[in-house]
Amino acid sequence: MLRKMFVIFGASDVLWMVFAVSQASQIDIFPSESKIFAQIGDSVSLTCSTTGCESPSLSWRTQIDSPLNGKVKTEGTTSMLIMDPVSFKDEHQYLCTAICKDKKLEKAIRVEIYSFSKDPEIHLSSPPEVGKPVTVTCSVPDVYPFERLEIELLKGNRPMKVQDFLEPSEKKAQETKSLDVTFSPTDEDIGTALVCQATLHIYDDDSPPKVRKTTKELEVYISPKDTAISVNPSTRLQEGDSVTMTCTSAGLPAPRILWSKKLDNGNLQLLSENATLTLISMRAEDSGIYVCEGNNPVGKDRKEVKLIVQEKNFTVEISPGPQIAAQVGDSVVLTCDVRDCESPSFSWRTLIDSPLNGNVRNEGSKSTLTLSPVSFENEHFYLCTVMCGQKKLEKRIQVKPYSFPSDPEIEMSGPLVSGNPVTVSCKVPNVYPSDRLEIELFKGESIMMNKTFSKDLSKKALETKSLEKTFIPTTEDTGNVLVCLARLPIDEMEFELKQRQSTQTLYVNVAPRDTTILVSPSSILEEGSSVNMTCSSNGLPAPKILWSRQLSNGDLQPISENATLSFMSTKMEDSGIYVCEGINQVGTSRKEVNLIIQGRESNKDYFSPELLVLYCASSLIIPAIGMIIYFARRANMTGSYSLVEAQKVC
């Protein structure tokens, strides 16, 4: 709150108190008034000053010695009493005392309190309406002292009432005082100003009083009347038609238009705040009483119109068809479609009122029931009920769950071996209803077997059904194709026959046989000779060859996987039984050969041609060497060498 500072200082409302402390001192007081007026909540400063005394002692007190409720600030020959903010406690006669040596002087000033901080307020008991009495209240808040207050109310320049409040208050307090005037506005009062003027006579002399005033322009109202409704094209309509209704109402200020529909319980349902109400694509339930209301701050006026909307015939279609086969685990969507009904109401149920086990979604003229995932619980007749106005139609669709999710599985009891019986199994997993299942087994173009299954009324469940056939394969079956064909017809459902098939090409195996060993040059050899042993075996697939040597304990020691086993230089220890095995996935065929390695004769070893040649050569060379040495030595003694002589000696 802004505060006004009153300072008693010099010519600016300041009181100077000058005390004579000697015969040469003097006291000057300005202004000459002995009291000031302070607004509650403002700030006031009283200043006391002396002349003719260098170091006076200054103090403040009230005449009745009550608390100062202010702050004193003294500097030199000046002392200041500050009251901030001013309150009722500050209304006193204040004395400033100055002591200079043995002299004491006092000067007094009175502080009067008042409150007049807010403008008057104008209030009307109700919105002013032409011809209807209204009370104007002019109130002045937080005023003191109210016995000096005067309130005057004017309409334009003409006084309406003046009121004084002469009774003195019993206590010091801020009070709100008011003046009331009741009058009936006329059309001429429109735009006229109401003026509330408050005057507070706080001064005892001819000084001007404190004045505050508030002005409020009169807004004179006229209650709505002459409300009317126009309807285009008519109040009788067909479903799907549109209608426009326009409402007018007179009043001041101009009435606000509200459109509502009257409900069965009599309450009004707000539709629009525009003067024009347009309803499109109307339905039978849009029939009823429509109310236009014009209202302004002083009243309202209503007008009603009744609309009649006649129903149209509508049709309902349900898809996909009257029956549907739904795969267990899949999703299926049933759609209910309405024609010639703008705002249908949908509902779904089963024929036996069991749980739907699905999700319903309505959008416009369509409603869908989604069954996801489809299960045995969804095997029902489903009914879609449509309400269009007061009319009702129903359509139904039958859902038959089935399960036929995967192709048949062909399994063999073992590998196909020519001449050995084998059992073929054709399995159809997770099938329902199994009593509708038919399985056929073909080999090439020839049917081997077919099978159907009886109905089990005790349960609804996914089952695995199979067909088994035992036959003896031959090599002629290789390349033929086994075909397992499964069919699942479901009564008279309008869809393609459900069928699945699997194929498997036959590969007939032949166990190894006719295993033979060819030894070259012979199975009986002399030590040091080479030998090749070649093994062959017939079978399908072609047998793998494995050479082994039979140990002394009867076990076989594998030595080679080549068809031919070769020894480049045989030894005595290579003698033994060698086994050739022809092996494939369906069998083994074995053949043995006994390899014998013989040692050489001793005389033949001693007089071999090479040794005889070496022996003769050595017998000639040694004597020749001796003779050469002998003649060489003689030649050294005689100094000559004669080949003839040497020959003679020989």
UniProtKB/TrEMBL annotation:
Domain of life of the organism encoding this protein: Eukaryota
Protein name, entry field: Vascular cell adhesion protein 1 isoform X2
The keyword Ligase appears for this protein: no
Source organism phylogeny: Eukaryota, Metazoa, Chordata, Craniata, Vertebrata
Principal location class: membrane
GO cellular component, one term: extracellular region
Record keywords: Cell adhesion, Cell membrane, Disulfide bond, Glycoprotein, Immunoglobulin domain, Membrane, Repeat, Signal, Transmembrane, Transmembrane helix
Protein source organism: Bos indicus (Zebu)
Residue stretches spanning the membrane: 612-632
